[in-house]
Amino acid sequence: MSVLRPVLTRDEETGIAYLKFADAGPGPTRQETVSLSDDPNDADLVLDFNARGQLFGIEFLNSAHLPPEG
C-alpha cells in the first residue's frame, strides 16, 4: 500500500466527500458502513479496506459537518 498525502474531494450536489490517504494496491477491496447516530438505517461513513485489511479511504455520506475545502 502506497501512502499518499491525504486528499479530500467533495461533491457539493450530493453532499458526499471522500478522503483518500493511500492507494488500495492489488487485490480485492471491501467496504464497511458506519453509522454515527442511533438510527441503524442512517449510514454516515463508508470505510474502504484493501486486500490486507488496511484502511485506505473514507467516504463521508453527509459532508455538511466537514470544514470547507481550501
From TrEMBL:
It holds the Pfam family DUF2283. InterPro entries: DUF2283 (IPR019270). This is DUF2283 domain-containing protein.
